[in-house]
Amino acid sequence: IGFGLLTCDDDAQARDRAGLEGSGEDKGFEAAHAAFATAALMDAFPLPA
């Protein structure tokens, strides 16, 4: 399970972090990437039964 939360002071910051065309960041993509990377690590190192 992944969780990404944008904390922004105004609409301009939110738009810049949302991954829209011309924005500087894509925090949603970063959160999804972190969730998949974590899942891959958990598969690579399973917990003992």
Describe this protein's structure.
- With 49 residues, the protein is mostly helical.
- The protein has one domain.
- It is 51% helix and 0% strand.
- The protein is built from 2 helices and no strands.
- The longest helix is centred in the C-terminal third of the chain and has 18 residues, at 27-44.
- The radius of gyration is 15 Å and the shape is elongated.
- The two termini are 21 Å apart.
- InterPro entries: LS/RS (IPR002180), LS/RS_sf (IPR036467).
- Pathway: Cofactor biosynthesis; riboflavin biosynthesis.
- GO terms for molecular function: transferase activity.
- Keywords: Riboflavin biosynthesis, Transferase.
List the helices and strands and how they pair.
Elements: H1 11-17, H2 27-44
- In percent, how helical is the residue content? 40-55%
Name the beta content range.
Answer: under 5%
Could you give the count of β-strands? 0
Mean pLDDT: 91
Cα(first) to Cα(last) distance is 21 Å
Specify the biggest β-sheet: none
What is the overall silhouette? elongated
The helix count comes to 2
Supply Rg. Answer: 15 Å
What number of domains?
1
The helix/strand series, from N terminus to C terminus, equals: HH
Summarize the structure.
This protein is an all-alpha fold and 49 residues long. It contains two helices and no strands. The protein has one domain.
Which descriptors apply to this entry?
single chain, 49 residues, mainly alpha, elongated
